[in-house]
Design brief:
The protein is α/β, with parallel strands linked by helices. Helix content is 36%, strand content 22%. The protein has a single domain (27-112), classed as STAS domain (Transcription Regulator spoIIAA, 2-Layer Sandwich), CATH 3.30.750. Strand 1 and strand 2 (19-23) form a beta hairpin.
Length: 121
């Protein structure tokens, strides 16, 4: 029996206008959901509001949705919110079907999702 080693995914974390912005990879699924949750928890330690830039994410399964739901609860408990930037119609549909679009704020563009940042015209 062989064991496959799943390479660690890269989750970009940066600050934009003083707000942490986490960018998950193209696919967000059971293979990287645990790491995604750890990255979101770490990014949200200093700031209650957190932005997840999912503009490059084309797939998100129930594991990813679960991690996002935990992040919403954590942000709300700290007086903030989880803001999602979603580009893929498929990901947006999954978020709508699961009700995530009713418990977090969704945006089409990153500048619109960052509080206090002036959106480009």
């Amino acid at each position: 029996m062989t064991t496959e080693c799943v390479p660690e995914q890269v989750f970009e974390v940066r600050s934009l206008g003083g707000v942490p912005v986490v960018t998950p990879p193209v696919e967000l699924d059971i293979g990287n959901a645990e790491q995604f949750g750890a990255v979101l928890a770490a990014a949200g330690r200093e700031q209650a509001t957190l932005v997840v830039d999912m503009t490059s994410t084309e797939f998100c399964d129930s594991s990813g949705i679960g991690v996002l739901a935990v992040a919403v609860s954590r942000a709300q408990a700290a007086g903030g919110e989880l803001r999602l930037v979603v580009g893929s119609p498929a990901v947006r549909k999954v978020l709508a079907i699961t009700g995530m679009d009713s418990i977090c704020v969704m945006f089409d563009r990153l500048p619109d999702a960052v509080p206090g940042l002036q959106p480009a015209p």
